[in-house]
């Protein structure tokens, strides 16, 4: 059984049809990329999966449950975590406290009220920072990080809930070439414990980390398959040549 299935997703904004029967299937422990020209519907499909938008038509199923109209909070409790393109770390807080807050969001109000969580969660905070090569800066403010490092911190925060599925919307936007390379390295280990859906314009980056790709054009799925399948797809080649 697939972990995530979106079927016949339509999303209409006034006179604009952003999605017109889009489909997406993601298996457990799979890295799946969403690509396509600007305006093809990638981010809208991501938002329909995450609950930021409700489909006009169609269904979204996650881990065997229909979540088409579930709230983002309900999806998070079911095991879905999202990082949008714009960084939302708290710049005045330290890296340590940013991750600690993300972990505390999973704990009971009683434990928070009696301040029981900081010591208990210390090892997990440091492990998350270590995983994303930020441990040596744990007690610096997040504002001191480069753009790429802030993105890594936010991915660490998104993984704090130990989700079954992580959604990333253009995580390498604004990064240097070296930061993009490192981001790919940092993401690879999470495949052991969760799936990934990623919207990305950097085709070299997404080809290097993803198992499968779904290509959107004008709100519809143009093609879907392995990296080799998509690279040899005449339909995909025609669209990218036409938009070049």
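^ Assign residues to that structure.
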């Amino acid at each position: 059984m697939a972990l995530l299935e979106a079927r016949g997703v339509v999303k209409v904004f006034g006179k604009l049809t952003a999605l017109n029967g889009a489909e997406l299937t993601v298996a457990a422990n799979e890295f799946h990329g969403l690509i396509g020209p600007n305006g093809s519907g990638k981010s809208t499909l991501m938002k329909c999966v995450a609950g930021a938008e409700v489909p006009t038509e169609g269904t979204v199923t996650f881990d065997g449950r229909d979540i088409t109209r579930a709230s983002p909070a309900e999806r998070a409790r079911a095991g879905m975590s999202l990082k949008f393109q714009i960084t939302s770390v708290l710049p005045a807080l330290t890296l340590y406290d940013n991750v600690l807050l993300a972990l505390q969001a999973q704990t009971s109000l009683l434990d928070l009220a009696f301040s029981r969580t900081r010591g208990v969660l210390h090892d997990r905070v440091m492990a998350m920072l270590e995983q994303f090569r930020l441990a040596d800066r744990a007690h610096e403010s997040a504002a001191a990080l480069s753009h790429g490092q802030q993105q890594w911190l936010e991915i660490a925060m998104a993984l704090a809930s130990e989700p079954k599925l992580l959604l990333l919307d253009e995580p390498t936007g604004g990064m240097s070439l070296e930061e993009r390379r490192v981001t790919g390295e940092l993401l690879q280990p999470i495949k052991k414990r969760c799936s990934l859906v990623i919207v990305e314009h950097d085709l070299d980056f997404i080809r290097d980390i993803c198992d499968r790709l779904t290509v959107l054009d004008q709100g519809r799925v143009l093609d879907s398959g392995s990296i080799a399948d998509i690279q040899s797809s005449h339909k995909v080649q025609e669209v990218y040549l036409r938009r070049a």
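The first strand starts at residue 4 and ends at 13.
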